Amino acid sequence: MRNREDIDAWLTDMDGVLVHENHALPGARALIDHWEVTHTPYLVLTNNSIYTARDLSARLRHAGLPVPEERIWTSALATADFVATQKPGGSAYVVGQAGIITALHEVGFTMTEKDPDFVVIGETRQYSFEAITTAVRLVADGARFIVTNPDATGPSADGILPATGAISALVTKATGREPYVVGKPNPMMFRSALRTIGAHSESTGMIGDRMDTDIIAGMEAGLHTVLVLTGISTADTLASYPFRPDEVLGGVGELVPSEPVTSEIEAPRSDV
Fold it and tell me: Interior CA angle at 235 toward 234 and 236, to 5°?
Protein backbone atom coordinates (compact mmCIF):
# COMPACT_ATOMS: atom_id res chain seq x y z
CA MET A 1 0.00 0.00 0.00
CA ARG A 2 1.24 3.47 -0.89
CA ASN A 3 1.36 6.20 1.70
CA ARG A 4 1.34 9.94 1.15
CA GLU A 5 5.11 9.90 1.77
CA ASP A 6 5.51 7.83 -1.42
CA ILE A 7 3.96 10.59 -3.55
CA ASP A 8 6.30 12.99 -5.35
CA ALA A 9 3.91 14.52 -7.92
CA TRP A 10 0.32 15.74 -7.70
CA LEU A 11 -2.73 16.28 -9.87
CA THR A 12 -5.53 18.34 -8.38
CA ASP A 13 -8.98 19.43 -9.40
CA MET A 14 -9.64 23.17 -9.32
CA ASP A 15 -13.24 24.08 -8.38
CA GLY A 16 -14.23 22.76 -4.99
CA VAL A 17 -10.62 21.93 -4.15
CA LEU A 18 -8.56 25.10 -4.65
CA VAL A 19 -11.30 27.67 -5.28
CA HIS A 20 -15.00 28.19 -4.71
CA GLU A 21 -16.82 30.93 -6.63
CA ASN A 22 -13.50 32.65 -7.47
CA HIS A 23 -12.28 32.66 -3.87
CA ALA A 24 -9.34 30.57 -2.70
CA LEU A 25 -10.29 27.82 -0.27
CA PRO A 26 -8.44 27.56 3.08
CA GLY A 27 -4.98 26.04 2.68
CA ALA A 28 -4.92 26.30 -1.13
CA ARG A 29 -2.33 29.09 -1.27
CA ALA A 30 -0.11 27.33 1.25
CA LEU A 31 -0.23 24.09 -0.77
CA ILE A 32 0.58 25.82 -4.07
CA ASP A 33 3.45 27.71 -2.42
CA HIS A 34 4.77 24.46 -0.93
CA TRP A 35 4.73 22.71 -4.30
CA GLU A 36 6.43 25.65 -6.00
CA VAL A 37 9.27 26.13 -3.52
CA THR A 38 9.92 22.39 -3.24
CA HIS A 39 9.81 22.00 -7.06
CA THR A 40 7.11 19.35 -6.78
CA PRO A 41 5.64 18.47 -10.21
CA TYR A 42 1.92 19.24 -10.25
CA LEU A 43 -0.96 20.09 -12.55
CA VAL A 44 -4.32 21.71 -11.84
CA LEU A 45 -6.99 19.82 -13.79
CA THR A 46 -10.39 20.99 -14.93
CA ASN A 47 -13.09 19.60 -17.22
CA ASN A 48 -13.89 23.16 -18.29
CA SER A 49 -12.93 23.51 -21.96
CA ILE A 50 -14.16 27.08 -22.48
CA TYR A 51 -11.01 28.82 -21.29
CA THR A 52 -7.36 28.58 -22.18
CA ALA A 53 -4.75 27.73 -19.55
CA ARG A 54 -3.71 31.39 -19.63
CA ASP A 55 -7.28 32.49 -18.88
CA LEU A 56 -7.53 30.08 -15.96
CA SER A 57 -4.13 31.09 -14.62
CA ALA A 58 -5.34 34.70 -14.52
CA ARG A 59 -8.54 33.61 -12.74
CA LEU A 60 -6.57 31.73 -10.10
CA ARG A 61 -4.12 34.60 -9.67
CA HIS A 62 -7.04 36.95 -9.08
CA ALA A 63 -8.24 34.55 -6.37
CA GLY A 64 -4.83 34.71 -4.73
CA LEU A 65 -3.35 31.49 -6.16
CA PRO A 66 -0.22 32.06 -8.29
CA VAL A 67 -0.53 29.04 -10.60
CA PRO A 68 1.49 29.38 -13.85
CA GLU A 69 -0.39 28.52 -17.03
CA GLU A 70 1.96 25.60 -17.71
CA ARG A 71 0.64 24.06 -14.47
CA ILE A 72 -2.95 23.90 -15.77
CA TRP A 73 -4.36 20.97 -17.74
CA THR A 74 -7.86 21.28 -19.19
CA SER A 75 -10.11 18.81 -20.97
CA ALA A 76 -9.49 20.94 -24.07
CA LEU A 77 -5.72 20.36 -23.85
CA ALA A 78 -6.27 16.65 -23.18
CA THR A 79 -8.61 16.43 -26.18
CA ALA A 80 -6.12 18.16 -28.46
CA ASP A 81 -3.38 15.84 -27.21
CA PHE A 82 -5.57 12.82 -27.93
CA VAL A 83 -6.70 13.72 -31.46
CA ALA A 84 -3.14 14.75 -32.41
CA THR A 85 -1.99 11.21 -31.60
CA GLN A 86 -4.89 9.78 -33.60
CA LYS A 87 -4.46 11.98 -36.69
CA PRO A 88 -1.37 14.23 -36.69
CA GLY A 89 -2.04 17.43 -38.60
CA GLY A 90 -5.72 16.58 -38.88
CA SER A 91 -8.81 18.72 -39.19
CA ALA A 92 -11.86 19.32 -37.04
CA TYR A 93 -15.22 20.99 -36.95
CA VAL A 94 -15.56 22.47 -33.48
CA VAL A 95 -18.55 23.49 -31.42
CA GLY A 96 -16.82 25.33 -28.62
CA GLN A 97 -14.93 28.42 -27.54
CA ALA A 98 -11.35 29.65 -27.20
CA GLY A 99 -10.11 26.86 -24.94
CA ILE A 100 -10.64 23.97 -27.36
CA ILE A 101 -10.05 25.97 -30.55
CA THR A 102 -6.71 27.32 -29.29
CA ALA A 103 -5.64 23.88 -28.04
CA LEU A 104 -6.38 22.28 -31.42
CA HIS A 105 -4.54 25.02 -33.32
CA GLU A 106 -1.51 24.54 -31.07
CA VAL A 107 -1.22 20.85 -32.02
CA GLY A 108 -1.38 21.70 -35.73
CA PHE A 109 -5.07 21.09 -36.46
CA THR A 110 -7.09 23.11 -38.93
CA MET A 111 -10.73 24.08 -38.42
CA THR A 112 -13.08 23.29 -41.28
CA GLU A 113 -16.66 22.44 -42.17
CA LYS A 114 -15.53 20.52 -45.27
CA ASP A 115 -15.04 16.81 -44.62
CA PRO A 116 -13.24 17.14 -41.25
CA ASP A 117 -11.52 14.20 -39.62
CA PHE A 118 -13.25 14.96 -36.31
CA VAL A 119 -16.27 16.73 -34.94
CA VAL A 120 -15.31 18.05 -31.50
CA ILE A 121 -17.96 19.24 -29.05
CA GLY A 122 -16.67 21.42 -26.22
CA GLU A 123 -18.11 23.69 -23.58
CA THR A 124 -19.57 26.98 -24.82
CA ARG A 125 -22.10 29.60 -23.88
CA GLN A 126 -22.80 30.33 -27.55
CA TYR A 127 -24.50 27.22 -28.88
CA SER A 128 -26.44 27.75 -32.10
CA PHE A 129 -28.92 25.56 -33.90
CA GLU A 130 -26.93 26.01 -37.13
CA ALA A 131 -23.67 24.82 -35.53
CA ILE A 132 -25.32 21.79 -33.95
CA THR A 133 -27.03 20.93 -37.24
CA THR A 134 -23.67 21.08 -39.02
CA ALA A 135 -22.14 18.83 -36.34
CA VAL A 136 -24.99 16.32 -36.74
CA ARG A 137 -24.58 16.18 -40.53
CA LEU A 138 -20.79 15.79 -40.38
CA VAL A 139 -20.98 13.00 -37.78
CA ALA A 140 -23.67 11.27 -39.83
CA ASP A 141 -21.36 11.51 -42.85
CA GLY A 142 -18.54 9.76 -41.01
CA ALA A 143 -16.51 12.32 -39.07
CA ARG A 144 -15.14 10.90 -35.82
CA PHE A 145 -17.15 12.21 -32.86
CA ILE A 146 -15.16 13.55 -29.89
CA VAL A 147 -16.42 15.31 -26.75
CA THR A 148 -14.15 17.22 -24.36
CA ASN A 149 -16.04 16.28 -21.18
CA PRO A 150 -19.24 14.50 -20.16
CA ASP A 151 -20.76 17.14 -17.83
CA ALA A 152 -24.46 17.46 -18.72
CA THR A 153 -24.98 20.70 -16.81
CA GLY A 154 -22.97 23.60 -15.49
CA PRO A 155 -23.65 26.19 -12.80
CA SER A 156 -24.62 29.83 -13.17
CA ALA A 157 -25.93 32.57 -10.91
CA ASP A 158 -29.45 31.86 -12.21
CA GLY A 159 -29.33 28.07 -11.99
CA ILE A 160 -28.03 25.16 -14.06
CA LEU A 161 -27.08 25.49 -17.72
CA PRO A 162 -26.98 22.79 -20.41
CA ALA A 163 -23.35 21.79 -20.88
CA THR A 164 -21.22 19.63 -23.17
CA GLY A 165 -22.82 16.31 -22.28
CA ALA A 166 -26.31 17.62 -23.01
CA ILE A 167 -25.32 18.92 -26.45
CA SER A 168 -23.41 15.77 -27.35
CA ALA A 169 -26.48 13.73 -26.36
CA LEU A 170 -28.47 15.70 -28.92
CA VAL A 171 -25.94 14.80 -31.64
CA THR A 172 -25.99 11.16 -30.53
CA LYS A 173 -29.78 11.04 -30.62
CA ALA A 174 -29.85 12.50 -34.12
CA THR A 175 -27.09 10.28 -35.55
CA GLY A 176 -27.05 7.12 -33.44
CA ARG A 177 -23.29 7.69 -32.96
CA GLU A 178 -21.73 7.69 -29.48
CA PRO A 179 -18.78 10.04 -28.90
CA TYR A 180 -15.41 9.32 -27.38
CA VAL A 181 -15.28 11.45 -24.22
CA VAL A 182 -11.77 12.56 -23.20
CA GLY A 183 -12.31 14.43 -19.92
CA LYS A 184 -12.89 13.11 -16.40
CA PRO A 185 -13.87 10.45 -15.44
CA ASN A 186 -11.95 9.01 -18.40
CA PRO A 187 -8.50 8.18 -16.98
CA MET A 188 -7.12 9.14 -20.41
CA MET A 189 -7.08 12.76 -19.18
CA PHE A 190 -4.94 11.77 -16.20
CA ARG A 191 -2.52 9.75 -18.32
CA SER A 192 -1.94 12.69 -20.65
CA ALA A 193 -1.45 14.94 -17.61
CA LEU A 194 1.15 12.51 -16.22
CA ARG A 195 3.04 12.59 -19.52
CA THR A 196 2.99 16.38 -19.47
CA ILE A 197 4.84 16.58 -16.15
CA GLY A 198 6.91 13.42 -16.63
CA ALA A 199 5.31 11.69 -13.64
CA HIS A 200 4.47 8.04 -12.98
CA SER A 201 1.14 6.81 -11.66
CA GLU A 202 2.83 4.84 -8.87
CA SER A 203 4.18 8.02 -7.28
CA THR A 204 1.43 10.53 -8.15
CA GLY A 205 -1.57 11.62 -6.13
CA MET A 206 -4.94 12.97 -7.28
CA ILE A 207 -6.88 15.47 -5.15
CA GLY A 208 -10.56 15.97 -5.94
CA ASP A 209 -13.92 16.86 -4.50
CA ARG A 210 -16.06 14.46 -6.56
CA MET A 211 -16.24 10.72 -6.08
CA ASP A 212 -17.89 10.21 -9.49
CA THR A 213 -15.18 11.94 -11.54
CA ASP A 214 -11.97 12.81 -9.70
CA ILE A 215 -11.71 9.82 -7.41
CA ILE A 216 -12.90 7.06 -9.72
CA ALA A 217 -10.74 8.33 -12.58
CA GLY A 218 -7.73 8.66 -10.29
CA MET A 219 -8.30 5.17 -8.98
CA GLU A 220 -8.61 3.70 -12.49
CA ALA A 221 -5.43 5.53 -13.54
CA GLY A 222 -3.57 3.92 -10.64
CA LEU A 223 -3.06 7.10 -8.59
CA HIS A 224 -3.11 7.72 -4.84
CA THR A 225 -6.52 9.38 -4.35
CA VAL A 226 -7.43 12.12 -1.88
CA LEU A 227 -11.02 13.31 -1.45
CA VAL A 228 -11.48 16.74 0.11
CA LEU A 229 -14.83 17.68 1.62
CA THR A 230 -14.88 21.29 0.37
CA GLY A 231 -16.85 20.68 -2.81
CA ILE A 232 -19.46 18.28 -4.19
CA SER A 233 -18.99 15.03 -2.29
CA THR A 234 -19.63 14.92 1.45
CA ALA A 235 -18.97 12.43 4.23
CA ASP A 236 -22.60 11.28 3.84
CA THR A 237 -22.52 10.78 0.06
CA LEU A 238 -19.19 8.94 0.32
CA ALA A 239 -20.99 5.97 1.82
CA SER A 240 -23.14 5.51 -1.32
CA TYR A 241 -20.17 4.56 -3.54
CA PRO A 242 -18.75 1.01 -3.77
CA PHE A 243 -15.17 2.34 -3.91
CA ARG A 244 -13.17 4.49 -1.53
CA PRO A 245 -10.39 7.09 -1.87
CA ASP A 246 -7.08 6.42 -0.17
CA GLU A 247 -7.58 9.49 2.03
CA VAL A 248 -10.49 11.71 3.04
CA LEU A 249 -9.53 15.20 4.25
CA GLY A 250 -11.42 18.27 5.34
CA GLY A 251 -9.47 20.44 2.87
CA VAL A 252 -6.21 20.78 0.99
CA GLY A 253 -4.58 22.59 3.89
CA GLU A 254 -4.16 19.20 5.55
CA LEU A 255 -1.69 18.23 2.83
CA VAL A 256 0.71 21.03 3.74
CA PRO A 257 3.60 19.88 5.97
CA SER A 258 3.59 21.40 9.44
CA GLU A 259 7.08 22.79 8.96
CA PRO A 260 6.93 26.35 7.58
CA VAL A 261 8.05 26.84 4.00
CA THR A 262 9.40 30.21 2.90
CA SER A 263 7.87 31.29 -0.40
CA GLU A 264 9.59 33.63 -2.81
CA ILE A 265 6.43 33.96 -4.90
CA GLU A 266 5.10 37.50 -5.15
CA ALA A 267 1.64 38.19 -3.82
CA PRO A 268 -0.96 38.76 -6.57
CA ARG A 269 -1.46 42.34 -7.65
CA SER A 270 -4.77 43.82 -6.67
CA ASP A 271 -5.24 45.30 -10.14
CA VAL A 272 -5.25 41.93 -12.00
Answer: 90
Neighbour-count burial for 81-106, b at 16+ CB within 10 Å, e otherwise: bbbbeeeeebbbbbbbbbbbbbbbee
List, for residues 228-267, the tens digit of each pLDDT value.
999 988 889 888 999 999 999 999 999 998 765 444 444 4
Q: Which residue among the candidates 15, 151, 209, 214 is catalytic per the annotation?
A: 15
Note the pLDDT of residue 1.
61
β-strands 91-95, 72-74 pairing: unpaired
pLDDT digits (tens, 9 = 90+) for 19-31: 988 899 999 999 9
Q: Let me know if residue 211 belongs to a domain.
A: no
Whichever domain contains 151, its CATH number is: 3.40.50.1000
pTM over 0.85: yes
**Annotated catalytic residue within 6, 8, 13, 151:** 13
Domain count, the chain: 1
Active site residue 246: no
Q: Is 13 a catalytic residue?
A: yes
